[in-house]
Amino acid sequence: MSKLTRYVVGELLKVFLVTLAGMTFLMLIVGLAQEAVRQGLGPVPVLRLIPYAIPNALRFAVPGTILFAACSVYGRMAASNEITAIKSLGISPLTIVKPAWMLAFLVSLLAVWLNDLAVSWGQQGMRRVILHSAEQIAYGMLRTQRSYSCSRFSINVKRVDGRTLVLPTICIQSKDGSPATVLTAQEAELRSDPEQNVLSLRLTNGRVTVGDRVTLVFPDTIELQIPLSEAARRGDASGGPSQCPLWRIQAEIREQEMQIENLRQEMAAEAAYQMLTGDLASLIHPSWDDKVNRVHEAVSRIHRLETEPWRRWANGFSCLFFVMIGTPLAIRMRNADLWSSFAVCFLPILIIYYPLLALGVDRAKAGELPPYSVWLGNVILATAGLWMMRKVMRY
Q: Are 303 and 256 in contact (CB under 8 A)?
């Protein structure tokens, strides 16, 4: 039996590792190319992105490649009557299926780690590279398109001479909804300072306009500093539940619960004081809506934080459940054409698993379903896989 197990595991590993290398390389190239085009990155920043992009490429490649390996190996074995020969010797087909399940279980643990690594360390690292390359990105787009914009900052120029921006127009949107600040100048120069996390703009001979009013005319040179998170095209998305590492989530939930408790106590004390003093009109003041919204935002963040561990474990263990349904299906098809077996196995996953996963994640984050509902797709795949495995063992 040990020789049979080693044979199956060896065949699975060969197909899995070769396919994983090819798929990861392809997804890495496509992902980096898209990021380079979207952000206007040069060759050096793209090379710096590679280590941070690898976990993201792997977490998408691993589930598909382990399913492809199982379909390839077991489809070939069934087509060449190897499984029939094993059954004729009185050996249960489960003997050669268990190694695939054990391998998929170990790969699932690796996939959980990759999911956590990709959304925390990987995405944060990519964001740092893009922020530190803000100056190069801005100059590149200004030379080619004469404009550069992000969420709260935009700049248009007539042309770029070396590092000098000729006739620049800079627009900075305010956070509180007040009129935007528009700066025009004869020339300007950009310089980023990653250590201070700012993008410096040196403007010469221009004016500053807020709304319809000219507030300042300067014939000399002034320096404007903008946070890199506001000047870069990839905004400051750090701190979101989807980018929080697993080890930090419980602490984040406790912090949100304390914040909700403090807000509710503050609202209760303020309401009691206003009723005691007879100032009932203050109870319908718009400031109350702001406080209620802060409580709702904190509750919503708790729902998203509680969903994240379940989502990452469900995503990671999709490898195991893909193999559980792919293995008996490939055996019953008895088709040596690995692409046909893979397509037929992947079709129910595409139709059933991913819509259920998306639905569970969306409703769990909204607080309408418990966080463990994201496992519904995995449970259905496991049930169908075990049912088909019984058919394989019986017939």
A: no
* HSE value, Cβ hemisphere, 13 Å, CA-based, for 36: 16
Q: What string of pLDDT tens digits covers the 395 residues of the chain?
A: 578 888 889 999 999 999 999 999 999 998 888 877 777 777 888 888 899 999 999 999 999 999 999 999 998 888 888 888 888 878 888 888 999 999 999 999 999 999 999 988 888 888 888 877 777 788 888 888 888 887 777 888 888 888 888 888 888 877 766 778 888 888 888 888 777 778 888 888 888 888 766 677 888 888 888 877 766 665 445 567 888 888 989 998 999 889 888 888 888 777 777 777 766 666 566 666 777 888 888 888 999 999 999 999 999 999 999 999 999 988 888 776 667 778 888 887 888 899 999 999 999 998 899 999 999 999 999 999 999 988 888 76
Whole-angstrom CA distances from 183 to 78, 141, 149, 213, 243 are 72, 19, 14, 12, 35
CA distances in angstroms from 274 to 55, 130, 287, listed in the order given: 55, 50, 14
Cα distance between residue 101 and residue 322, in whole Å: 10
The H or E element spanning position 266 is helix 246-277
Asked whether 175 and 230 are in contact (CB, 8 A), the reply is no
Task: Please classify residue 255 by burial: count the beta carbons closer than 10 Å to its beta carbon, then call 0-12 exposed, 13-18 middle and 19+ buried.
Answer: middle
Instruction: Give yes or no for a contact between 135 and 144, defined as CB atoms under 8 angstroms apart.
Output: no
Cβ(207)–Cβ(238) under 8 Å? no
- The label of the residue with tokens 């920043």 reads 45
Degrees to nearest 5, angle at CA 358 with 312 and 340:
90
**pTM value > 0.70:** yes
Can you name the residues that pair with 198 across neighbouring β-strands? Answer: 193, 227
Alpha-carbon span 171 to 182, nearest angstrom:
4
Q: Tell me if residue 197 falls in helix, strand or coil.
A: coil
Q: Which helix (H) or strand (E) holds 201?
A: strand 198-210
Are 314 and 357 a contacting pair, CB within 8 Å?
yes
Answer yes or no: are the C-beta atoms of 169 and 182 closer than 8 Å: yes
